[in-house]
Write a structure and sequence with these properties.
It is a single chain. With 326 residues, this protein is an alpha+beta fold. The protein folds into 2 domains: 3-104, Phosphorylase Kinase, domain 1 (2-Layer Sandwich), CATH 3.30.200; 109-324, Aminoglycoside phosphotransferase (APH), C-terminal lobe (Aminoglycoside 3'-phosphotransferase, Chain: A, domain 2). 44% of the residues lie in helices and 17% in strands. It is globular, with a radius of gyration of 20 Å.
């Protein structure tokens, strides 16, 4: 581990008064994260949040929502307060100020790892049905819940996806694409934006959403399912949540089974109309396009980016997706 990162993490942990036994750097994601183990064996997750991604108010709003979700019997992260009673401290990482936050550690394995090689079996459909149930419960809580006046999170609406300053970057100007690709991406931006503007944002289909609830963000411990990583959570269409759950399996031969199972699980707890389902293919395309923007704004992830694959999927799927919405 980078000694400077280790020292910064130790400085952050000191704000919680934890007597540290072990510090483990976790795989790189949106934030720098560590598994923190105290001398008594207790474990936590320390997150050093990416600078410029969320304001302090937006970070505390995330906790406000997850607290409300826990009150609705949905298993989500539990934050730990510092010695001074705050949920965050400030640390400097390579010249940038970051907010550090601590969460309770949850034992288990990711659903994504359990799905490897078993998508065709009964367990694959069962796990996607469970994700559908989780999303329905989240959407039920979100549509009924009234945040406080100081609540602030970003929006994955037309402006948040396709406006002048979209949340995940101007994908139609991506440095990772060529001129021909950028021309098509610009056209797709306009076409999809028009469809979503007409679709609207009524409460039945638009509320707070997790926005990144793929199987890798569900931790399984026996029969208990724990949802992690609310970093991207904000206001958006419910179908985007459904599309995100499916996106990594879009080219899999079992996609139809997984999709049907997801919808079946969702319908156990929340109404899902055929019209709403007809928009899911469009949100799958949207996920591909905004992922191009996400990778383009994060050079540290360039090596993991299949930009051509994302682009080719958008080109192959857009016309049919638009037709399904009309």
């Amino acid at each position: 581990m980078d000694n400077s990162l280790s020292n910064i993490a130790r400085e952050a942990v000191s704000h919680w008064g934890i007597e540290l036994a072990e510090l483990e750097l976790l795989p790189l994601t949106e934030n720098i994260a560590f598994c923190v183990t105290g001398v008594a064996g207790q474990r936590y997750v320390l997150r050093l949040h990416r600078p410029g991604y969320h304001s302090f108010v937006e970070l505390t709003s995330e906790h406000q929502w997850t607290h409300a979700l826990r009150n609705a019997a949905i298993d989500v992260p539990v934050p730990i307060k510092t010695i001074l009673g705050s949920h965050y401290c400030k640390v400097e990482v390579h010249g940038e100020v970051r907010y550090g936050g601590m969460l309770e550690w949850v034992d288990g394995v990711s659903m994504a790892s359990l799905l490897q090689g078993d998508l065709a079996g009964e367990s694959g459909g069962k796990m996607f049905a469970q994700i559908g149930e989780l999303l329905a419960k989240i959407h039920n809580q979100a549509t009924a819940w009234k945040p406080t006046k100081n609540f602030s999170r970003h929006a994955f609406n037309v402006d948040g996806f396709f406006g002048e300053s979209p949340f995940w970057g101007r994908f139609w100007e991506s440095r990772l694409t060529n001129k021909k690709q950028r021309e098509w991406l610009g056209q797709a931006r306009d076409q999809i934006g028009d469809v979503l503007t007409e679709y609207g944002e009524c409460a039945e289909i638009y509320s707070l959403i997790h926005a990144d609830l793929h199987p890798g963000n569900v931790i399984v411990n026996d029969d208990q399912l724990h949802i992690i990583d609310f970093d991207d959570s904000g206001f958006g269409w419910h179908q985007y949540d459904l599309a995100v759950a499916l996106f990594d399996y879009r080219d899999n031969s079992q996609f139809s089974l997984l999709q049907d199972s997801l919808f079946e699980g969702y319908r156990k707890h929340r109404h899902l109309t055929d019209e709403s389902i007809s928009y899911v293919p469009l949100f799958l395309v949207i996920r591909a396009l905004v992922s191009i923007g996400w990778f383009s704004d994060r050079p540290e992830h360039d090596g993991r980016a299949d930009i051509k694959g994302l682009y080719d999927y958008g080109v192959s799927a857009l016309d049919q997706a638009l037709a399904a919405c009309r």
